[in-house]
Amino acid sequence: MSPLSKRLTDAGIIVGLTAAATFIIVVTASFLTSKGGYWQGVSLWLGLIKRTDILGTMILTALVGAGYAFWQQSGRTR
């Protein structure tokens, strides 16, 4: 696997983990409201994840993080 495809895979995993963490936070928070419930939390999460600005921010953050990690590893002497 080439280094670029490995970094893109890492970025995809980071985006997935971020979406999962957001899901847990939103669904758990929906239980704490008086009218909340599981399905209301899932509906709210889907509305949040489908927004292109939120998804774009998640992807950009993952790519910058993976790029920074690659830059740090390539600067070390072996």
What does this structure look like?
With 78 residues, the protein is an all-alpha fold. It has a domain at 21-73. It is built from three helices and no strands. Helix 1 packs antiparallel against helix 2. The protein is elongated. The model has no long low-confidence stretch (mean pLDDT 85).
Write the layout of secondary structure elements.
Layout: H1 3-31, H2 38-49, H3 52-74
Helix pairs in contact: 1-2, 1-3
Largest sheet: none
Oligomer: single chain
Number of β-strand runs: 0
Shape estimate: elongated
Q: What proportion of the residues form beta strands (DSSP E)?
A: under 5%
Q: What percentage of residues falls in helices of 4 or more residues?
A: over 70%
Structural class: mainly alpha
Distance between the termini: 21 Å
Stretches with pLDDT under 50, minimum 5 residues: none
Order of helices and strands: HHH
What Rg, in angstroms, do the CA atoms define?
17 Å
- Let me know the average pLDDT: 85
Quickly count the helices: 3
